[in-house]
User: Fold NADH dehydrogenase [ubiquinone] 1 beta subcomplex subunit 10 from Struthidea cinerea.
Amino acid sequence: MPEDHDWEAYKVPPTRTPVSERTTSVPNPINFFQSAFSYVLDAPVTFVREWIERWQSRNKSYYYHQKFRRVPDLSQCLDGDYLCYYEAEAQWRRDRMVDQEIVEIVRERMSACKQREGPNQFQNCAKEMELLAQVTKAYQDRYGDLGYHGNARTCMMKQKHRMMEERKAAQ
Assistant:
């Protein structure tokens, strides 16, 4: 492609918009209203918004996920300490949701391995199958048979009964 343009071959077409020639000395009222709007309404709003944005950029914080501190278990709460009971219940619910997500992630990895390997899934996905069996057994041991309305107290009682049965079986 040549660097020199042939301006004679490719002429720019003339514009069809006529140049306005001022014939009066009276100012245009539209220009007056535009400038009044700009100074009265737009300028203060723009100033306040820019001030808020500057203030927020100084105090920038990122919320990826909320981090909770670990609270005492229900077995460590004193009698009648209802705030401790509430915090332990909330902690138990968060732990249960985390454990549910762990089981779901391992299950998704297992299904992805099965999809990827096809007929060889039993020999190539043995590690994922074993991990899924361990995770689901641990989840079932801790939260199984509690139902939808299970809480920290019934979960603790279930674990206590399971430990007592294991001690009896060991003797």
The chain is about 65% helix and 0% strand. The CA atoms of residues 21 and 74 lie 86 Å apart. The longest helix spans residues 82-117. The helical segments are 29-58, 82-117, 121-124, 126-143, 152-170.
